[in-house]
């Protein structure tokens, strides 16, 4: 279904993603983990065509999406929705309008300028907000919502695109543990109920183990682990993070020693 082959991205002399290859033969929840700077965000941005690849190939159902241009490229970005760490909402617009922006790629410029939305799209936006438990927030400005609510609005906007693939770039990195769990539960439910592929960049082994069907570990732009959550052993964690790590099967959590504060904190955010 989705195959990346030797996907590489260089920024001048620096290689951000180095010959990454993986294949998904069915819809699944894929986690991409690693330290900051490992190349996780660049990888997702290349899949969505927000960042150009230097070399390599990405095939989706027989089409190399890296060769798409113009309208075909925009259509692909509609089928491959992106969710960002900082939500990327329009703060002063109401929640419903932010969700409706998920249809912009197929709307005329004039209709967009005057904020004209078909009744069918409005009804669908409200249905999606209801599904995500925030329909009562529809008339409020996005800036009035909590971080967790804003991220669910961003997920609703992605669903308005009716995508085959949802890319979530560190969707819980700026959230407290309770809201992080709500957002991850939402993404997992979308995968389970809709059969959509979800690819999420994550800092934490615990989150990957809890939510993902498969995990790719990146270090210095390269894939150093590709397997199931149960295969995230101490040795795998050490290879991914380059530090001593201990893995507790009983607690289903991972403690990473010797990591920088942001990663060490993230590793314990959703311990059970």
Automatic annotation (TrEMBL):
It holds the Pfam family ABC_tran. InterPro entries: AAA+_ATPase (IPR003593), ABC_transporter-like_ATP-bd (IPR003439), ABC_transporter-like_CS (IPR017871), ABC_transpr_PhnC (IPR012693), MetN_ABC_transporter-like (IPR050086), P-loop_NTPase (IPR027417). PROSITE patterns: ABC_TRANSPORTER_1 (PS00211), ABC_TRANSPORTER_2 (PS50893). Keywords: ATP-binding, Cell membrane, Membrane, Nucleotide-binding, Translocase, Transport. Residues 2-245 form the ABC transporter domain. The keyword Heme does not apply. Gene3D superfamilies: P-loop containing nucleotide triphosphate hydrolases (3.40.50.300). One of its GO terms (molecular function) is ATP hydrolysis activity. GO terms for cellular component: membrane. PANTHER family: AMINO ACID IMPORT ATP-BINDING PROTEIN (PTHR43166), PHOSPHONATES IMPORT ATP-BINDING PROTEIN PHNC (PTHR43166:SF6). This is Phosphonate ABC transporter ATP-binding protein.
């Amino acid at each position: 279904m989705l195959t990346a082959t030797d996907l590489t991205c260089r920024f001048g002399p620096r290689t951000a993603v180095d010959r990454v290859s993986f294949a998904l033969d069915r819809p699944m929840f894929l986690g991409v983990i690693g330290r900051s700077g490992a190349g996780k965000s660049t990888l997702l941005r290349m899949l969505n065509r927000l960042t150009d690849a230097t070399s390599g190939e990405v095939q989706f159902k027989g089409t190399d999406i890296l060769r798409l241009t113009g309208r075909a490229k925009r259509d692909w970005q509609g089928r491959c929705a992106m969710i960002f760490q900082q939500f990327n909402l329009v703060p002063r617009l109401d929640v419903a309008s932010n969700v409706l922006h998920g249809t912009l790629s197929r709307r005329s410029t004039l209709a967009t300028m005057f904020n004209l939305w078909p009744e069918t799209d409005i009804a669908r936006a409200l249905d999606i907000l209801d599904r995500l438990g925030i329909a009562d927030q529809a008339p409020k400005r996005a800036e009035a919502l909590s971080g967790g609510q804003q991220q669910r609005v961003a997920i609703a906007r992605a669903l308005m695109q009716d995508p085959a693939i949802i890319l979530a770039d560190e969707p819980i990195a700026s959230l407290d543990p309770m809201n992080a769990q709500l957002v991850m539960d939402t993404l997992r439910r979308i995968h389970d109920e809709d059969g959509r592929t979800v690819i999420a960049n994550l800092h934490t082994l615990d989150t990957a183990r809890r939510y993902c069907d498969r995990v790719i570990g990146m270090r210095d732009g390269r894939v150093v682990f590709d397997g199931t959550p149960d295969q995230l052993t101490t040795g795998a964690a050490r290879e991914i993070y380059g530090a001593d790590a201990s893995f507790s099967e009983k607690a289903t959590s991972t403690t990473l020693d010797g990591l920088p504060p942001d990663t060490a904190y993230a590793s314990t955010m959703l311990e059970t």
